[in-house]
Amino acid sequence: MFEILPLVAVALALYTLHASRENARRLGEEIVRLRREMEALKVAGVVPPEPAVAVAAEEEPAAKAEPGPWTRPAASEEDIGRAIFGGAPAEAAAAEEEPAETAPVAARESFESRIGARWAVWVGGIALALGGIFMVKYSIEAGLLSPAVRLSLAALFGLVLLAAGEAVRRRAQPVIANAFRNAMIPGVLTAAGVITLFAVTYVAYAVYGYVGPLAAFALLAAVSFATLGLSLLHGQALAGLGLLASMATPGLVATGEPRPWPLFGFLAVAWLATLAASRLRRWQVVPALANAGLALWAVLYLTQAGTVETPPVLLALLVLAAGLGLLWPGAAGEGEEERATTDAWERLLSPPAAAVSLTGALALLFPALVFATQVPGLALADYAFALVVLSLAALGAARGWAVYPAMFSAVALVLGTAILAVMPGVTLLDGFGLVAPPLPEGATPVSPLPLAAAAPVNLLLLTAAAYAALGIAGAWLRGRTSREFAALWSVLAPAVPFAVTAASLFVFGNLAFDLKHGLVALVFGLAFLAAAELFSSGRAEGEAVFVPQWTFAAGGFAFLVLSLHALTEGLATTLGVAVLGALAVFATRLRHWPVLPWLMAGAAAVVAGRIAVEPTIVGAANLAKTPVFNQLLAGYGIPAALLALSAFELRRWPGERVRNLLQALASLFVLLTAAILVRHAMNGGVLDSAVPTLGEQAIYTLLVIGASAVMMTLDLKSPSPVFRYGSMTVGVLSVLSVASAHLAGLNPYFTGELLGRWPVFDLLLIGYLLPGVAYAGLARYARGRRPMPYVTMLALAGVVLAFAWVTLTVRRYWHGESIADWKGFLQAETYTYSVVWLLLGVLLLALGSRFDSKSIRLASAGLVLVAVVKVFLIDMSNLEGFLRALSFIGLGAVLIGIGLFYQRILSGKSVPQG
């Protein structure tokens, strides 16, 4: 019972189609007959009477008669052609060309239109396909017809559907074609016929074996190409169906052994046919799917086939790149009008035919990476990788819409080089094997081979050179139409070859001396500096930031630095980088390029990186043990001097930020030089990772305090935010270092470090007293020149260090060189702490009064408070007899004396100063 329903649906659909076609034919004939009568009357000079409504409208001058069916012009040949090929009539096209302000708002489609005009067509097409399937199913189950007869009838049914689609298309009205172009009855009938013929051919080959592989392949290909041709008449949906059939054909027809040339030849021809149809109709979805299909086949073949040949895959990919550049979008995307968006980068990233551009770039990217993974196991894989990458770059440089090929060419070359250099033999995209067609019998998938031969260094360097040339050409060509695209290419042109050359040098080269990489990098550097000069010629000084000048100059400088690393080593490399940066600064006398001073900052970053990797500059085994006068003095001191000289050279340079940066870098390198020389001298000429001693840390602290004072002096003589804020930053960091190292981490009380034989002139003197005095002097110097909270912090740091010196000196008096905490406390020692703390408090009070410093007086009050707490909480419980009484008597006398002193100074000065 249910099997009859599809037949009924098919019959009803055909009857409805026939009735609507007859009505449309009769209406069209009547309209043509009436138009001919009107033309004959006009020729004879007889004017037909107007309707009463029209006469009444003529009596009112302000009224305008609406055009009716009698006043419309006859359909032109152009309208008929548009109707046949699926386009809009001339009137509709003219309406589309009118400005948006005058175009009427399109009426929203009604629910009745959706149901009757669109869904009925789609459901009818599905019903036709299901009817054919059920009919074949029923005949098989009932055994009524032989397989040959069933296939013949199915093929006949498909041809009938194709003929019906063409007949309906020829008689379709232009209005229907324009309003319901995505639900056209001819396209649905044609698609149903194509599916039927494709299924018949495949069943005849795969199920019954009536035709061989070659004949089946030819028949399926013929159906696919015929579908692509019919898509020019029926639209993009049918083109997608033909594309799907084309891409599925090689997978459906399996041969005994793989034949890559016929396979990729057919795929390339199918892809070109799809692209040609898309070019005529300006489609984007179908060519995007075609790009994805061709790339999928290439990846599947390269990763899953038993025997792989490189040339056919490479040729198909080169055809893809050439087709995108010459056929579609080709030159058609160059003349597109700019979109309404005001963001230039948004326009750049959403070019005409963006879907085709993006999918085409990805379709070349993935096979290129797979080629890289097959080196050296697959012959010519390295050349294929290079050619695919360069084809992407050439496409990106030649076409203004090809921003995605430009970007993905950089990704492909950098990732491919990383695969060759770091991960040789790794297999990418293995997951595609899940959707791969079954392999022929006896074939085994290709497994990557280990790196058994030398990497293609020469090819990588040549590819980098070709990419650089394409990048410079792309920046030059795109600079005429899109500054953003030119800026993108000016970044990629030096950055990508630099990454490739650097990877090749550090992985495959000789870091001690490599003439090949050194000369290549030198040529690259000079070429990009010449490009910067070429692009900058004719530009007025003071214009807005010109990206190619910055990127090409910076790229040339980077290549020169890389050349130094290839041709020199150790101290010579470090000094050479610093000298290159200084030369860039002095080049501002010849060229006022804003980028030149920043190159010195880049050189300082490279020197700092080299120091971080190898602090000894020349290697621990080659470092001399002579204090101060050794390789460290040159390796650290000369870059510091060149930075200071560069900052001085830029004293009249309009860019203040770079001058301030060089001043800061010079200050840091000077501090670093002093610190490293001290560490070298105090460790017997050896630099290691051992924790520094208190004496070494004290020298660092004294150096930092001195650097803060020097920067403050420089700021007073030549005001600069670097010196102003740098001096305070260094001061704050030194105070934090004192709190963490002097008072806690390196404190002899906790570490047990010996203080030395001589009292006073011992480790406590350099570790606590001298830094405390230095902080007091810096606070005095900064008073009135720096914010009061900063001055107060320095003064309190000096007081804390003095307190620590006094306290630890008392402990040394009672315990000797070792004052470790495990020795405990003596009663006399405990009493001595109270005495010296009170004396120190009184001394600080006197100094605060002498220098009129409120912060020192407050520190004195705090210290006395600590002494009071100690006497009442510790001395009362730990001291006995005479010492306990003496402690309280002394405390009371000192407190009374302090009270009298405060009364005197407060009565003499009503407003104390900080």
Structural class: mainly alpha
Main sheet: strands, sense, barrel: none
Query: How many H/I helices?
Result: 33
Average predicted local confidence, pLDDT: 77
Number of DSSP strand runs: 0
Protein name: DUF2339 domain-containing protein
Coiled coil: 17-44
Organism: Shinella pollutisoli
Pfam family, one: DUF2339
Outline the structure in words.
The protein has 914 residues and is mainly alpha-helical. Among the domains are: 1-63 and 73-95 and 112-253, no CATH class; 257-334 and 347-440; 694-822; 825-914. The protein is 72% helix and 0% strand. The protein has 33 helices and no strands.
Topology diagram in text:
Elements: H1 4-44, H2 52-59, H3 77-84, H4 90-97, H5 111-142, H6 147-171, H7 174-179, H8 185-206, H9 213-234, H10 236-252, H11 260-281, H12 285-304, H13 310-326, H14 344-349, H15 354-373, H16 381-398, H17 403-421, H18 457-478, H19 483-508, H20 515-536, H21 547-567, H22 571-586, H23 595-613, H24 631-649, H25 656-682, H26 694-717, H27 721-745, H28 748-751, H29 763-782, H30 788-815, H31 827-850, H32 854-878, H33 882-908
Helix pairs in contact: 1-5, 5-6, 5-8, 6-8, 8-9, 8-10, 9-10, 9-11, 10-11, 10-12, 11-12, 11-13, 12-13, 12-15, 13-15, 13-16, 15-16, 15-17, 16-17, 16-18, 17-19, 18-19, 18-20, 19-20, 19-21, 20-21, 21-22, 21-23, 22-23, 22-24, 23-25, 24-25, 25-26, 25-27, 26-27, 26-29, 27-30, 29-30, 30-31, 31-32, ...
